[in-house]
């Protein structure tokens, strides 16, 4: 009878070792990555096409009209909304020009008296 109880004890020990090895081998799932902000624009981004010549002149000549139509559109938005709308317009190639992100966005927003939000980046 001694060997039977030793066999049961050995079998129980093997079962526990196997079970806890399998359980401890399981990893805790990592948390999901942070969600990227979804860009939205509350205006028709086609209206920002008027900003293309303004930005071109601003980039190459360093002059611009802060009271022009482009800035009027941008000033009616919050800083986040303006930056988001410009990002969408750039990604959709609405402006039709090569744009440096975030440099040219900041340049245009500064002309219009709007400060680019800290840490803002076009995703």
From TrEMBL:
Residues 1-25 form the signal peptide. Pfam families: Hydrophob_seed. Keywords: Membrane, Signal, Transmembrane, Transmembrane helix. SUPFAM superfamilies: Bifunctional inhibitor/lipid-transfer protein/seed storage 2S albumin. Residues 41-122 form the Bifunctional inhibitor/plant lipid transfer protein/seed storage helical domain. The chain crosses the membrane at residues 35-58. CDD domains: HPS_like. This is Bifunctional inhibitor/plant lipid transfer protein/seed storage helical domain-containing protein. It comes from Spirodela intermedia (Intermediate duckweed).
């Amino acid at each position: 009878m001694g060997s039977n109880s030793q066999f049961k004890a050995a079998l129980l020990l093997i079962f526990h070792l196997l079970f806890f090895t399998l359980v401890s081998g399981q990893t805790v799932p990592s948390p999901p990555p942070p969600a990227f902000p979804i860009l939205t624009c509350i205006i028709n981004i086609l209206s920002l096409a008027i900003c293309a010549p303004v930005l071109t002149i601003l980039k190459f000549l360093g002059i611009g009209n802060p009271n022009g139509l482009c800035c009027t559109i941008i000033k009616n938005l919050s800083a986040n909304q303006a930056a988001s709308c410009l990002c969408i317009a750039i990604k959709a190639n609405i402006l039709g020009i090569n744009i440096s992100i975030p440099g040219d966005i900041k340049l245009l927003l500064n002309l219009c008296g709007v400060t680019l939000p800290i840490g803002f980046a076009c995703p």
